[in-house]
Amino acid sequence: MNKTLAELAQHVGGTVVGDSQVIIEKVASIDEAGAGAITFLANPRYRRYLSVCRASAVIVGMDVVRGLPLRDGKGYLAASDPYVAFAKILKLFHDSPRFSRTVSSFAHVDPAADLGEAVTIFPHAYVSGGVKIGRRTVVFPGVFLGEGSEVGEDCVLHPNVVVCAGCRLGNRVILHAGVVIGSDGFGYAGQGEGRVKIPQIGIVVVEDDVEIGANTTVDRATIGRTVIGRGAKIDNLVQIAHNVVIGEYSVIAAQVGIAGSTRIGKNVTLAGQVGIVNHIQVGDGATIGPQSGIAQSVTPGAVLSSGIPAAPHREWLKVMTLLPRLPKLWHAVRGLEKKLFEIDKRESSKL
Amino acid sequence: MNKTLAELAQHVGGTVVGDSQVIIEKVASIDEAGAGAITFLANPRYRRYLSVCRASAVIVGMDVVRGLPLRDGKGYLAASDPYVAFAKILKLFHDSPRFSRTVSSFAHVDPAADLGEAVTIFPHAYVSGGVKIGRRTVVFPGVFLGEGSEVGEDCVLHPNVVVCAGCRLGNRVILHAGVVIGSDGFGYAGQGEGRVKIPQIGIVVVEDDVEIGANTTVDRATIGRTVIGRGAKIDNLVQIAHNVVIGEYSVIAAQVGIAGSTRIGKNVTLAGQVGIVNHIQVGDGATIGPQSGIAQSVTPGAVLSSGIPAAPHREWLKVMTLLPRLPKLWHAVRGLEKKLFEIDKRESSKL
Amino acid sequence: MNKTLAELAQHVGGTVVGDSQVIIEKVASIDEAGAGAITFLANPRYRRYLSVCRASAVIVGMDVVRGLPLRDGKGYLAASDPYVAFAKILKLFHDSPRFSRTVSSFAHVDPAADLGEAVTIFPHAYVSGGVKIGRRTVVFPGVFLGEGSEVGEDCVLHPNVVVCAGCRLGNRVILHAGVVIGSDGFGYAGQGEGRVKIPQIGIVVVEDDVEIGANTTVDRATIGRTVIGRGAKIDNLVQIAHNVVIGEYSVIAAQVGIAGSTRIGKNVTLAGQVGIVNHIQVGDGATIGPQSGIAQSVTPGAVLSSGIPAAPHREWLKVMTLLPRLPKLWHAVRGLEKKLFEIDKRESSKL
Questions:
Q1: pTM of the model
Q2: Is A201 in Cβ contact with B94 (below 8 Å)?
Q3: How far, in Å, CA of A125 to CA of B102, rounded?
Q4: Regarding the domain delimited by C108-313, which CATH topology (the fold level of the hierarchy) does it fall under?
Q5: What is the pLDDT of residues C3-28, one digit of tens each?
Q6: Which chain B residues touch A330 with a CB distance below 8 Å?
Q7: Which of A215, A219, B237, C168 has the fewest Cβ atoms surrounding its Cβ within 10 A?
């Protein structure tokens, strides 16, 4: 596919600075882009790359395009959100894979399953009784859809995804390979030999436009629902426990763990490896830094963190040793303050 | 199914306070329960919900039932362990899924496999030679049972579970979707190009009544056995390395990692995202808080933690910056103490 | 198989101390080894086990063999790197599993796939069009190979491994059960409802001699390649984000997470549960301690850590409470120093 830079600018609602008729054939990274390629200045910090960049065009922010050097037969595509423009152009040049729109005879599809038009079911998929699958949805090999589960339209369930009985996915949901939706929540009553499993009879509801990364697990509710809200994006190897609710458009990075019944608000951002205890609320728009531990409810819009950046090991050993002595240190300082106060008092009394 | 509250009380060994003849048809969460439903006061903190709760009955602790308001046509089921009572009633109302008790012709079952009575093998399961499967065990689609592996009676292996060659599961073991039992331990000798893989020729033994969460991994021993002790409960995305031993009835929350050859005692509780180094012992009954790092052996019954709850990011930045200077701070305080001691001495000498 | 200790010593380039003609039939762990077994003293700390060890032979380091007691009909195999010697002997005694070297008619293999000699494809594997598989490679049940993906020679893809479209594996690559190679990177532009997915059109390249642990996920590049360098060893449940590059012979322990576009050098060691932010470099030969957070680029050879070993919970609660007050403490100490300096000055002025 060939497009002029002007055509691309129109496609994304941006403006051209430089040669608007240069022909673009592909998208490439800034260090690999050559003639015919459009690339993307992800970060103004990388501006120095521009001088050696051989791309025919570069997508940049409206605010940075002014100061940039102009070169013959090349141009910039300036956009208010250059990252969105990049995504749109990448989509334009990227052939979506085509699917057969048929049901493989090597898949197991229960006669009582209800399949929409143009659904693709690959070999070795397993579709239980009572399952509903919406139009144009793609079910890759090794996918398991449990009894009575529902999948909306235009979904993609990548290989070896498991959706357990009764769980429901909205439209345009993408589940990457190995995702498990609706495994039993981790619930027991009693202790030791007397411990009994609490049946997990709830479901998981995954709303429209959600994308979930490879090998992430979402447990079914004990009773009721575990909910992944509309437009939420969840990365790989994340753990979502029973009865958790993730608000709309929240973004959860890899290896985060959220314990049972906790409610995450809308537009929340959780960085990688964050851990959140059970039965709390994280308010709308909150942002939590990487590796942080969240032990109490978080107010809307809060920006929290508790991650500790690594230090040279020998120095850190000393810090580690002193940390448990922090209360002692605190008392020592309080003692010194008191003593100094007394010295001061004595001195003043002498005057 | 309909039961009177009196019947339910008898089933769980509890007592009714209020209307013992009210009819219960289902179990529901406290905020969703209506007429005909029994619910559960999980936490005395939630007592305020009771005034607006429309459930026909509420399971409560013996100790809290006294102070609660009584309403016509409604009742409380008071139990010594209300959580256990809840689990039992939930089980009563929850239809266990029924299985075909047959071996699908679309499964691969080696002729040399030994299958007990009433075993269910779903399509696309793979049962290798020398495998033994006990009575009534259910093997879902996509499950792989390696050469010579053994599965006891009344087990449930959810979709895409992998049990590698030679590993052994006891009775009533539940493995949730994507669990891997018996992958190679992470063992190498030498460095760089000279690094060689240490063959991992041991097995994993999973004892009776163990339940393991989705996508958790348990590595086979280098030599000998990795053991998950009787009644242990392990959550999702947990990593158990080679030659680890987990004691009976221990409970391990999501995303915990336990390094090689470490021995976890009985009735140990590990909260989410805990990391434990290799070659140590964690004593019976120990409890480890979320995100903690365990670098040394832990005495029985110890209650340890090292997780840090998140603080406002700007404030935490300051803390983070000062942490590496903790040794300097410590010395400064020591210096001040010394100086003050000298001043004191001088002052006394002046008297 | 029977070997004399002398033969084993020759096999690994070591020397015998004691009875060189003792017959060895198997390898066993030091606490389980009996007559006919060779075992391994992993750590000089465990020397005390030797007095009760009933093994016919023990592999030890050249440097420790001298002080050890000699017993009739038994011997030591002393090697410069005893761990490597152990690995080699274990390999000698360990029968590699034999495979059918055929393609199962219950696998799905696209006619346009290109399979090398003696390839083994198990039932329920899925091989897409345009796939290339090198000689003697083994593809277990439930494995998915996407359109145009390539797998080298002598690889082993364990059950339920997923290699997405276009990704490439070198020779002698081992992927353990549930590994996902080439899932979409976690990339979006814009916010809330306006958020759009950035197509992930790059690939993953896994070079020769790489081994990757169970349920680990490696995302494809947005554009270009995510690279796992030659000889790298990656443990279970690790997350490698898009465009990450792992250098040759690096070793990454379980549950590590590496964010997008970060470059890990050669011979780097990352301990368990380490988290590394995006767009940084970790220099060759660096070592990062368990649970550490890496927020900035790391110089070659650096040894860093930020993990905190757990303390008794009650004591840790006090530390946790004081941590946010560390800046206040710091200022208090600065204030005290100033005050003492003034007292000192006043005192000297009085003299």
A1: 0.96
A2: yes
A3: 19
A4: UDP N-Acetylglucosamine Acyltransferase; domain 1 (2.160.10)
A5: 999 999 999 999 999 999 999 999 99
A6: none
A7: C168
